[in-house]
Each structure stands twice: as C-alpha cells, then as structure tokens.
Amino acid sequence: MECALGVAATQFPSYFRLKSHEFRLSTVKCQSVSLSASQNSPTGLAERPWKVADARLVLEDGSVWRAKSFGASGTQVGEVVFNTSLTGYQEILTDPSYAGQFVLMTNPHIGNTGVNFDDEESRQCFLAGLVIRSLSISTSNWRCTQTLEDYLASRNIMGIYDVDTRAITRRLREDGSLFGVLSTEESKTDEELLKMSRTWDIVGVDLISDVSCKAPYEWVDKTNSEWDFNFNRRNEETFQVVAYDFGIKHNILRRLASSGCKITVVPSTWPASETLKMKPDGVLFSNGPGDPSAVPYAVETVKELIGKVPVFGICMGHQLLGQALGGKTFKMKFGHHGGNHPVRNIRNGRVEISAQNHNYAVDPESLPEGVEVTHINLNDGSCAGLAYPQQKLMSLQYHPEASPGPHDSDLVFGDFVQLMKQEKQRL
C-alpha cells in the first residue's frame, strides 16, 4: 500500500516481537510528494478539501480578523454593530436601518433556515455586510427557497464566517462601535485597509435618501392571518395614514393595515404641504438609518406637521420628533440591536421585551415642558418613548412590529388608531 504524505519514503519491517508474541504487519510504503508540483491549483499548491481563510475584517483600532468569505467578494467599508437576536437574520438583512453597517450576529449558528421571499422587510439588502461565527452547511425549513450564501451572492452582499464574534462583540461593548473594512482582495495590505477604516465616517451622512422610495404609492397588504396576533381590530373604522419612508419596514405597514389603516407611503423629501392636502387622519414617521442630525430637511417636515394631525414616530421617526420639538439627539456607545431589550412603559408599569435597532437616542433632559417620556430602556435608562398629548404626538425608539422579535409592543398600533379616532371625534 502506498500513501502520499509529503514525507520521506520509509520502509517498515514486516515483523516485530512484543512479549514473546509474534505479530505480522503488512508493509506500508510512504512516498514523498512535492506539493508545488500540483497542476490543479493556480497557486501551485494542492487544493484542500475544505475552505481556508480568504477574507479579512480590519477594524479602526488596528485589529485584523482572518475569516472565510461567503456571498459577494471585494472590499467594503462600514460601521460594525452587533445584533443579539437569536433568529430572523433575513429580516435583519433587509432592514434599511442597517445601511452603511456590518451586522455581527452574536448567535453563533446562522443560515440553517435558509431564506424565503415572504420574510423580506424591504425591496433589497441595504447593509454593508454580515459577520457570523458558523455558517450552516444545510437548510432545514419547509419555507426555504434559497441558501443564505446564494442569497447574499445574488444581492452582492459580503459575508464572513469562522471569525471570533464573541471577542469582537466584547471589543465593541468596551470601546464602542468601530468602523471597519471587509475585504477578500489579497492585493490590498492590512495597512491599506486600516487607513480606509480610519478615513471613513458615517456621522453626519444622509443615509435616508438612498433607502427611501422615489415616488408615493399605496400599501394594501395586511398581516397574513397565520401571523396576526391581534384579531380584535378587524372590520373597524378605516383611517387614512400618510407614512414617510425613511427606510420603512414592510411589517410596520402590514400591522397598520391590519389595524384598519389605508396607507399612502411617501418619500422622505415629500413636502408637508402636500401631505396636508391629502387630509390624512394621521402621519407615521418611519424607522431609518444613520444620524437624524444629517437630515435637517426631514426635521423641518416633522416640525410643519406637529400639532396639525396626529403623528406616530418609530425609531428614526422618534429621533426626528425629538429634534423637531427642540430636543437633542446623541450617538450611543454601541447602540441597541436585537430582539431582547427590556423596556418599561411608565404609564402602566408594564415591562415589554422589545426589538431594537438604533445607534442614536433622544436626550430627555433637552425636551421642552409638556413632552412626556413614556418608555425607558431598562438596560441603560435611555429614552425609549415619548408623548405630547397637546400636540397629538406619540413615538417609540424601538420596533413594535418586531420583525424579527417578540410581539409585546404590538398593541401600540392600536394606541395610534385611538389617537386618530379621538381627533376625528373632536372635529
């Protein structure tokens, strides 16, 4: 028997003795093979039957993380944030609020349920890349229509795996969010990638314009009955709602429609005067990516609508309302990203487990008299909800539609409907 092990040829004896017992062994002949002689590899080396590290994540703090790539190839810059959700990676991938960011999943095993069309939260993937510990080699869900790897490749999104996501998460928690460069290009040195990470910035950049729709459209789809957790609002009065698309998620629209709303979605730059001409019963300011201070035009639109019609802000919409009321927003150390954040509703004392995705927050101390903080994040005490009854205003810093995430906060859509109903009765 011959074997190619890359070692010098050795002849083992056919017999040996041990404690007076004779054993017969077959002859094993090992022959050295020059790996550089392989003709199957462009590098001149024998191809391994497993994937090797072919990508790097270089962070602005100087650390270099070797990994294996999947999805698209190339070089991409982004802000690294970690998400603590245990499931729902496809909804995360299609959440426009992640534009300009690398999403690192703390759950180690990703990809086992594949992807499907029904779980899309927007028309495309807007994030810069996906960072995971372990990529599932198979899918095992009856709804799966495509693997995660093929899905990212078809959407030109980079991904890496076999990287220590726990160590990176600890670094982000200690040092705050970091900019980084993800690359599969061997021609670029670590120093070049580090320079790219240190010269790129996301603060003050308008990310909303790229994720918003370009023209108004009507939204009619309700939540599928098998996913609807609140049936008691069906067949009620219809309310006309204008929804500003700062990066809106489809499930927000579905939950509004299931609450009895007829919705017109408008671009982020849609004038307030045009909205008022539509005579809506209420206005929704949606979630979206980036720094609220980078979109002063949106703040001005919000200012012009406050007090004239009931309004509801979610995530970015909450931050824009805070600024429009005269308050200030600030960038958090590493933000809130995940489906397990505890929030207390101050009005009723109820604690909700919420889904969150934001890097900025409203400073409650900067808000004028009359504005009420209705919710607080129990992890860090930050402002998670506002109300201004005199101005017919309500907002949440987190995602009540929870895609992915728990449905504790779904009833807030009913609160918005009640706000519109009260205004109708008053008029």
Automatic annotation (TrEMBL):
<dbReference type="GO" id="GO:0005524">
    <property type="term" value="F:ATP binding"/>
</dbReference>
<comment type="function">
    <text>Small subunit of the arginine-specific carbamoyl phosphate synthase (CPSase). CPSase catalyzes the formation of carbamoyl phosphate from the ammonia moiety of glutamine, carbonate, and phosphate donated by ATP, the first step of the arginine biosynthetic pathway. The small subunit (glutamine amidotransferase) binds and cleaves glutamine to supply the large subunit with the substrate ammonia.</text>
</comment>
<keyword id="KW-0665">Pyrimidine biosynthesis</keyword>
<keyword id="KW-0547">Nucleotide-binding</keyword>
<comment type="pathway">
    <text>Pyrimidine metabolism; UMP biosynthesis via de novo pathway; (S)-dihydroorotate from bicarbonate: step 1/3.</text>
</comment>
<comment type="similarity">
    <text>Belongs to the CarA family.</text>
</comment>
<keyword id="KW-0055">Arginine biosynthesis</keyword>
<keyword id="KW-0436">Ligase</keyword>
<protein>
    <recommendedName>
        <fullName>Carbamoyl phosphate synthase small chain, chloroplastic</fullName>
        <ecNumber>6.3.5.5</ecNumber>
    </recommendedName>
</protein>
<dbReference type="InterPro" id="IPR029062">
    <property type="entry name" value="Class_I_gatase-like"/>
</dbReference>
<dbReference type="GO" id="GO:0006541">
    <property type="term" value="P:glutamine metabolic process"/>
</dbReference>
<feature type="domain" description="Carbamoyl-phosphate synthase small subunit N-terminal">
    <location>
        <begin position="53"/>
        <end position="183"/>
    </location>
</feature>
<dbReference type="GO" id="GO:0006526">
    <property type="term" value="P:L-arginine biosynthetic process"/>
</dbReference>
<dbReference type="InterPro" id="IPR017926">
    <property type="entry name" value="GATASE"/>
</dbReference>
<dbReference type="GO" id="GO:0006207">
    <property type="term" value="P:'de novo' pyrimidine nucleobase biosynthetic process"/>
</dbReference>
<dbReference type="Pfam" id="PF00988">
    <property type="entry name" value="CPSase_sm_chain"/>
</dbReference>
<dbReference type="GO" id="GO:0005951">
    <property type="term" value="C:carbamoyl-phosphate synthase complex"/>
</dbReference>
<dbReference type="InterPro" id="IPR002474">
    <property type="entry name" value="CarbamoylP_synth_ssu_N"/>
</dbReference>
<dbReference type="InterPro" id="IPR006274">
    <property type="entry name" value="CarbamoylP_synth_ssu"/>
</dbReference>
<dbReference type="GO" id="GO:0006221">
    <property type="term" value="P:pyrimidine nucleotide biosynthetic process"/>
</dbReference>
<dbReference type="InterPro" id="IPR035686">
    <property type="entry name" value="CPSase_GATase1"/>
</dbReference>
<dbReference type="GO" id="GO:0004088">
    <property type="term" value="F:carbamoyl-phosphate synthase (glutamine-hydrolyzing) activity"/>
</dbReference>
<keyword id="KW-0028">Amino-acid biosynthesis</keyword>
<comment type="subunit">
    <text>Heterodimer composed of 2 chains; the small (or glutamine) chain promotes the hydrolysis of glutamine to ammonia, which is used by the large (or ammonia) chain to synthesize carbamoyl phosphate.</text>
</comment>
<dbReference type="InterPro" id="IPR036480">
    <property type="entry name" value="CarbP_synth_ssu_N_sf"/>
</dbReference>
<keyword id="KW-0067">ATP-binding</keyword>
<comment type="pathway">
    <text>Amino-acid biosynthesis; L-arginine biosynthesis; carbamoyl phosphate from bicarbonate: step 1/1.</text>
</comment>
<dbReference type="Pfam" id="PF00117">
    <property type="entry name" value="GATase"/>
</dbReference>
<keyword id="KW-0315">Glutamine amidotransferase</keyword>
<dbReference type="GO" id="GO:0004359">
    <property type="term" value="F:glutaminase activity"/>
</dbReference>
